[in-house]
């Protein structure tokens, strides 16, 4: 297969994807599938090979991702319905007091967005932001930007949020490893951008809102403790299972039955089932929800999850098509004979798709699909693959603007004009992206 034909396949495939989403307003799931089929056709695959690539790409990806996203959606719905997110915010605000209110909101966003989608986090927490602005007499961005930063960083960097889970699966990154490195990269960046750099773009004038309720002083301490338990147990199981399994494989500790048991309990399937059952009881039944109401809450939560799952599967199809056409081999060979870094490729491709069509999820899946086709020929370590995953996450945050649904949600809840939102959230999201990539690139060079 000539290189020019393969280059044409990938370039026209991305162009077609962007055209279908931006100009034709076609659903991302269908757009990804059509773009993947186009790549296969131009890349020289037969009809049978294209069908096989669709089946394998969809099946391999959803075999892991569908379970994680579904359980995470139920978990997040229970956290939202129980009022746990608001209680957590009020708890941290009380502990930190007014001087640390921005830090408290950032940490709240960082924690809440582990099981909850970005837009849901905004909806349930922005009343607290508005109340704080009214009480303090400060501009709403003083409190909103730290919260949005915490939500955005976790949404892109830390599993089991759907986007990072999908990218980890496509790149074959251990989920426990991804959580540790995602937190190690994401938390300092969130603090830098959310608490400090955000001050540079926060105006001094007071924001005005209609019908803003005063901030509540009361919260349920037992609910806050429950949140830490039901969030902490599955994360602890995933991390410990991953750690001891790795240590056993590398011969650091002797393999034993207890390691197999811990690896089983620490698999994301099992640990998140345990966490979800705990949430069903402690955030549902224990707080007065009957069986019918619990069923309605959990059933309703799976509707948005279904869309994410299908889009993720289509992203897996695009990855498989690039592998089967030989595009990955071609890019890997070109990179090995040049100084161009795979981590820079991951960031630039993801950033380009994000800027052009707006969806962070589609950008992450496109970037992951291209990089995954390259990685098998580059013999990257688990650390390197995880840092590449982080570069994809960084690219997915950049330049949130008018083609991003999140931009309009922020615009609506801030009660700002488009220009004001561009000067605030668009700049803030770009600062998160650029600073995180600089940190990731430096770490990648050092390891």
Q: What does this protein structure show overall?
A:
This protein is mainly alpha-helical and 447 residues long. The protein is built from 19 helices and no strands. Helix 8 (162-171) packs parallel to helix 16 (360-374). The longest helix is centred in the N-terminal third of the chain and has 35 residues, at 47-81. The protein is globular.
- C-alpha-based Rg, rounded: 22 Å
State the total count of DSSP E strands.
0
Mean pLDDT, as a whole number? Answer: 88
Q: Which H/E pattern describes the elements?
A: HHHHHHHHHHHHHHHHHHH
Secondary-structure-based class equals mainly alpha
What does the main sheet amount to? none
Low-confidence stretches: none
Q: Write down the overall geometry.
A: globular
Cα distance spanning the termini: 35 Å
Strand content: under 5%
Separate helix tally? 19
Helix content: over 70%
